[in-house]
Write a structure and sequence with these properties.
The protein is an alpha+beta fold. The chain has one domain. The chain contains one helix and four strands, in the order αββββ. The chain has a four-stranded antiparallel sheet.
Length: 135
């Protein structure tokens, strides 16, 4: 009788460990790039929406034509976004050209926050305060 040769089908432990190591390296790289992509998408969303929301608050101020300060949110339409509005008398310096505007110019600052103030956008503008005889 002839001896039958025994063949074993399968992988050795070393081959399995090498395959798992390669898979771990590939998945780590994949998940890292996915995380960076999600972060950049969130930042892009803020960078697009924050200036628009700030302009919207400025338009509300100009439509009301009265000094306005405060803070709030934008409701469910822009959840997570908050705004802060402040006015103060504009600093004009010692310029003779600017002296006629003394006391008639206010600096309006609108700050938009998102994500527990992780992201912040600020816009400053100047508005002329109307005198009582100009109304």
């Amino acid at each position: 009788m002839k001896e039958q040769q025994r063949t074993t089908a399968g992988f050795t432990l070393l081959e399995v460990m090498v395959a798992v190591a390669i898979l771990a390296i590939a998945l780590t790289s994949l998940f890292g790039s996915q995380s960076a992509s999600v972060s950049l998408a969130a930042e892009t969303r803020f960078n697009i929406q924050a200036p628009l929301l700030a302009r919207m608050k400025l338009a509300e101020f100009q439509a009301a034509q009265e000094p306005m300060t405060g803070m709030g949110d934008f409701g469910d339409d822009f959840s997570g976004f908050t705004w802060e509005l402040s006015t103060e008398e504009a600093f004009l310096g010692d310029s003779e050209v600017m002296q006629p505007l003394e006391g008639k110019l206010q600096q309006l600052t609108v700050t938009i926050h998102w994500g527990d103030e992780l992201y912040s956008y600020q816009i400053d503008t100047y508005v002329k305060v109307q005198d009582e005889d100009e109304q």
